[in-house]
Amino acid sequence: MIKQDTGVASLYKARQGAHYCLLYKSEDDLIDLLSRYFQHGIANNEYCIWVAADSTVEKKARQACSEVVLPAGEGKKRIEFARAREWYLKGGYFQSERVCKSWFDKLDYSLERGYTGIRVTGDLGWQDDSVWSDLLNYELSLNKLVPSEKITAICSYPLDGLTASQLLDIAHHHQRTIVKNNGKWQVFETIESEVIGKSTVHKPGDRFVKVSKEKVVRQPVLYSDRCTGCGLCVSVCEQDLLYLQNYKIAVRGSGSCDWCTYCEAVCPNGAIACQFEIVLSNTL
């Protein structure tokens, strides 16, 4: 079911249980939206944590929050700042379980002091191909955890350097995604989200998920009854994942789709599609 979107305000007014994503080109755009996001957190008596990309962004973020946060002067008490590499890469490496536990330690800290929960954002611009699979597992674990907790979360990714398949991965792993296109904010909502991957929950009392190190498997959906065996999809598949079996499209058991969508684009009969769709909910 698709929820009715109310525009960009739905992100900075996000409620507890939200796990959203912000894709940005301009640091000024990022800071403008997130400062309003934290303004609402202060109004809701949430403890706020801003994990900024670097010291430059942190300085701008502090200034922006001092200008918009209400009531006056309360921002310094209710907003904590950190830097992305120190938060996500302690010891020089990324570990999903450790980062999730850090968020929940902050949640416990806030509840013990009378806050209604935590409102957080973290910049993931430090990532590279070597940690991409682990990062997707981290986002998957947040999808399992955040909706049932007193947490509001926005992950931010700089657009520069992201591939088309990575953009689709990011959108697939968040409830909503916002991006500025041609000067206007656009909000996208994931309709279906079924990433194949295993996870296990710790003993009762623990609230974080340990996600396995298994690679996230992504494969297209096939509608063999629509396939005429033309082979166009096979010819454009750069991952060598598709083949014809008895004149019908088939997918190999090993390998993972990169969501280039070339196969879907060339198929004249709609016999192949990605596992999820993204709809444009609103344009501002």
List the helices and strands and how they pair.
Elements: H1 9-12, E1 19-24, H2 27-43, E2 47-52, H3 55-68, H4 75-78, E3 79-83, H5 84-88, H6 96-112, E4 118-123, H7 132-145, E5 151-158, H8 164-172, E6 176-181, E7 184-190, E8 199-201, E9 209-211, E10 221-222, H9 232-236, E11 242-245, E12 248-251, H10 262-266, E13 272-273, E14 278-283
Helix pairs in contact: 2-3, 6-7
What does this 3D model show about the protein?
The chain has an 8-stranded mixed beta sheet, with helices on both faces. It has a two-stranded antiparallel sheet with strand order 8-9. It folds into 2 domains: 9-214, P-loop containing nucleotide triphosphate hydrolases (Rossmann fold, 3-Layer(aba) Sandwich), CATH 3.40.50; 221-275, Alpha-Beta Plaits. It is elongated, with a radius of gyration of 20 Å. The two termini are 23 Å apart. With 284 residues, it is of the alpha/beta class. Helix 6 runs parallel beside helix 7. It is built from 10 helices and 14 strands. The chain has helices spanning 9-12, 27-43, 55-68, 75-78, 84-88, 96-112, 132-145, 164-172, 232-236, 262-266, and strands spanning 19-24, 47-52, 79-83, 118-123, 151-158, 176-181, 184-190, 199-201, 209-211, 221-222, 242-245, 248-251, 272-273, 278-283. 34% of the residues are buried.
